[in-house]
Amino acid sequence: MSNFPKGCSWLFDQTNPQEVFTPEDFTEEHKMIFRTAGGFVADNVLARIDELEAQKEGLVRELLEGCGELGLLGADVPEEYDGMDMDKISSTIIAECMGRAGSFAMTQGGQTGIGSLPIVLFGNQEQKQEYLPGIVSGEKVAAYALTEPGAGSDALAVKTKAVLSSDGKNYVLNGTKQFITNAEMADVFIVYAKVDGEKFTTFIVDGDSKGLSTGPEEKKMGIKGSSTRTVILEDVEVPVGNVLYEIGRGHVVAFNVLNMGRYKLAANSVGNAKYALELSATYANDRKQFNTPIANFGSIKEKLAQIAIKIYVMESMVYRTGGLLENLLSSLDISGEDGGQVIAKGVEEYALECSMNKVFATEALAYAVDEGVQIHGGYGFISEYPIERLYRDARVYRIFEGTNEINRNLIPIILLRRAAKEDLPLQGAISKLRGDLAAGIPARENEAQVVQAAKDIFLLTMEAGIQKYGEGLQNHQEVLGRLADLAIGAFALESALIRAQKAEAKEGEAKAKLKLSMTRAYIYSTIGTLENIAKETLAALAEDEELANYLKDLQDLSRYTPWNTIVLRQEIANAISSAGKYIV
Length: 584
Description:
With 584 residues, this protein is of the alpha+beta class. Helices cover 57% and strands 10% of the residues.
């Protein structure tokens, strides 16, 4: 792993664009997978979306089996268990395409992610052979049962208990799980319980186990076509051979699986946002007011352009992270019995990037569907128009896989912990910044220098947080959230820039023009926001002369010449309107 960039090392180092994966690097096989997955969603899911939303009996199983026939359920499963063992880019592409599938994206995600990855990564050979082939084919439906009425973000607070039977053959589980996706039809549950009320442990529980039942379907705001129920465990006997990984090590399973879950949800968000833009651009082209398509109005152009820019940025972040994961994981020796655990450890290296992707992409999706409804006007509020469903469905994305608040808290905390272990040169980078400020920092003259300013702004604000609170910083969530936003902003800016730079070097400025315009529009409209976040945060961390000095430093870091982003967005909107969909 030492040959690969450490997670979050981009904050402290210059990144070579040629070493970053972008969607322009898709192979022919990747493009074929895109066509296959996208075609399945269009022909089988969206064509029957009304039936799906009405929870037509048997339809979800039919769709899952259809996915299985095309290999869309086994991307992350080894071939010896009937999986496809695809690279992480292919797995990401499938997740993106499923993002257009509405509530079925949750069903498919539960099957291929949190429902099967615990077994893929932590199961023994017997467990994998028993359960994975059926999950890959869609014959068995998987569900993940962690959340409880009193344990959501605080996963370790679960109260479900597991007690070893007197004959030592089974664990007897008692408890209640809540908001469980796929619960109504699940054949396999990944269940978390505390052995003897103390040791947090993962179990594989068969859906037909005596004493396992489900409550009625939850009446949800969105994703109505997916099953969400309470799961009740009353003296459910689970063979000791169905303990997943080790007694008392359930947190290792849960947290590592959540890393990939967050990343895949970001990929879902990319596909969903592209669909929202496609619907909005088509409507804006067709809808006329004052004898002209509303796509010609400046305020609508702004909305179309802003949605497209956010998609470009999150797409750049997601596939950049996918490239990091693939490069690292493809180098690991996973031939041993602990191969899955080796993979999980590799994914953990980029846990920060997974959280950043999740936060940014789900909030960008929220923006896309909200502005999509606005572009549709009154029709956006009518259920006959798909954008209304997308708006409702998207809301839960900021809650799934660890709320965005939890993910924001994790980002600076994990960074500080890694720095304390000297895995990341945080103090060295702060010291270097201090030297640069003392020497004088000239005004930023191009996009690359503005991106560096974003990194510097984060380091300055982090320094103030450490000075004020030390290790106690992790207890101040208002500050942690703002530090996270600064770090996410820097990653977003750099990911967009690197993609544009790489495209320009390969294709020339003319062909890369739209990417360059999106990059510039995003960088120059975002850096001021990051400066304001830092200013507000510094005011909470310092006062009087110390605050004045920090604000002077911030001002020195943030000097740049603005770009005409209004013209850039007009250009972007014209391209989107002309195509009737997202293009770069």
